[in-house]
From TrEMBL:
<keyword id="KW-0832">Ubl conjugation</keyword>
<feature type="domain" description="HIT-type">
    <location>
        <begin position="1"/>
        <end position="35"/>
    </location>
</feature>
<dbReference type="GO" id="GO:0048254">
    <property type="term" value="P:snoRNA localization"/>
</dbReference>
<keyword id="KW-0862">Zinc</keyword>
<dbReference type="Pfam" id="PF04438">
    <property type="entry name" value="zf-HIT"/>
</dbReference>
<keyword id="KW-0597">Phosphoprotein</keyword>
<keyword id="KW-0863">Zinc-finger</keyword>
<comment type="similarity">
    <text>Belongs to the BCD1 family.</text>
</comment>
<dbReference type="Pfam" id="PF25790">
    <property type="entry name" value="BCD1"/>
</dbReference>
<dbReference type="InterPro" id="IPR051639">
    <property type="entry name" value="BCD1"/>
</dbReference>
<dbReference type="GO" id="GO:0000463">
    <property type="term" value="P:maturation of LSU-rRNA from tricistronic rRNA transcript (SSU-rRNA, 5.8S rRNA, LSU-rRNA)"/>
</dbReference>
<dbReference type="GO" id="GO:0005634">
    <property type="term" value="C:nucleus"/>
</dbReference>
<keyword id="KW-1017">Isopeptide bond</keyword>
<comment type="function">
    <text>Required for box C/D snoRNAs accumulation involved in snoRNA processing, snoRNA transport to the nucleolus and ribosome biogenesis.</text>
</comment>
<dbReference type="InterPro" id="IPR007529">
    <property type="entry name" value="Znf_HIT"/>
</dbReference>
<dbReference type="GO" id="GO:0070761">
    <property type="term" value="C:pre-snoRNP complex"/>
</dbReference>
<keyword id="KW-0479">Metal-binding</keyword>
């Protein structure tokens, strides 16, 4: 025993590696050396002394760090006062445009992604917008899209045979090769049950703001660009007699194949 030097040692401190013979000597050595008795998982070990036990210890240490980091990321924290004011302003301005804008708590993916702003001088929204092309399994995120821009102009860099980017055009070949009249733009209707997913049909010739009026938006709009000729799993509401259209000037559709591409944490 390195504390009393009388009895045979039975214990070894994981922290400082001192030998002790009893609980009394363990307490004495902790007090004398200000030792907490907890093994230092980050202590240096030379390669000559490195064993399988050290490797296992390092692996478990990294697992603990990963769990701690994940728990911290998932922890729901409160919005700062400045962020609360900004979100209140966005919701209030959207309400003035007949748009019900809903925001999610801190920690949700869509809350972190959203970059939507409102320019009070121009009295205009600049939307964070996501475009989903389900037939090509492609998604694109746009930032700062002015609300007075038409949907047709928004889609030009993606599906227009002349103005679209060559790389994007190749990926979305099925869209660029189809007539523009065959393209439909849909937006999911929020606040419906999972087994009753429906989509509003939007007007490409109208502005983004006009299309969003009367809609419920969670954080930012997500638009689904589909082709009418590929609607074997698509049901347009009001045409099959099962359900009436929800809005007089728009149609809705059910896209069961698109559910996999939805933002699930919304």
């Amino acid at each position: 025993c390195e504390t009393c030097s009388k009895e045979e040692a039975k214990y070894r401190c994981p922290r400082c590696m001192k030998y002790s013979c009893s609980l009394l000597c363990v307490k004495k050595h902790k007090l004398a050396l200000n030792c907490n008795g907890v093994r230092d998982k980050t202590a240096f070990v030379s390669i000559n002394e490195f064993t399988d036990l050290n490797l296992l210890s390092d692996y478990r240490f990294l697992e603990d760090v990963g769990r701690t980091a994940d728990a911290a990321a998932r922890r729901c924290t409160m919005h700062s006062p400045a962020t609360k004011r900004l979100l209140y302003c966005l919701r209030n301005k959207a309400r003035g445009c007949n748009i019900e804008l809903k925001t999610l708590p801190v920690g949700f993916t869509k809350r972190r992604e959203n970059s939507t702003t409102f320019n009070s001088i121009e009295n205009k929204f600049y939307w964070h917008l996501k475009l989903v092309f389900p037939h090509c399994h492609a998604e694109y995120t746009l930032k700062g899209v002015p609300d007075d821009k038409t949907l047709a102009d928004i889609l030009k860099p993606y599906i227009d045979p002349v103005e679209s980017d060559p790389v994007v055009c190749q990926r979305l070949k099925i869209y660029t090769a189809s007539p523009q009249s065959d393209v439909q733009i849909l937006m999911k209707i929020e606040n419906r049950s999972r087994n009753s997913v429906r989509y509003n049909k939007l007007d490409a010739s109208r502005s983004l703001l006009e299309n969003l009026k009367g809609k419920v938006i969670i954080e930012y709009p997500t638009l689904f660009v589909v082709l009418k000729t590929l609607k074997n799993d698509m049901v347009i509401l009001g045409q099959d007699g099962s359900e009436p259209t929800e809005n007089a000037g728009s149609e809705s559709s059910s896209l069961s194949s698109m559910e996999e591409g939805e933002i699930r944490d919304s």
